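Intended use. Records like the one below are meant for learning the mapping from a protein sequence to its folded structure. Do not use them to infer anything beyond what is encoded.
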Amino acid sequence: MKKAGILNRHLSGALAELGHGDGVLVCDAGMPIPDGPRVVDLAFRAGVPSFAVVLDGLLAELAVEGATAAAEVRAANPAAAALLEKEFPELELVPHERLKELSAGARLVVRTGEARPYANVLLRCGVFF
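Structure written out for the chain above:
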C-alpha cells in the first residue's frame, strides 16, 4: 500500500495516465459532469471532501501549466476565487456556460463534495521537466 500521496486507487491511476495538455476538471458536487471523460467521484457528503482539500492534493501530484474557472466565482464564492487566484496567478476566467463547454474536452473529472457554488476549475496539465 502507498504510504504517501493520493491513496484512492482510481484517482492515482487516472493521474498516472495524464499527459501534457490533458484537461482535468475539479468540480463541486453540483457541476454537470460531461459524457466522455473518466470520472473519479470523491464526494462523500455535502462539503466532504472540500474543493480546497482535493485541489491541494492534486496540485501536489500534477504539473499544471494553466487553469480556467468561471468568472461568476468572484461574486458567488469569494473564498474559492481567492484560492484559485492564489494558486494560479494567470487564472483564465470565462462565463460558466463556457466552462461547461470546455469541460467536455477534459480527460478526467474529479468530483468533490463541495457544496458552495462555482468551486470548479479546469486544469491543463504541464510537464515536470
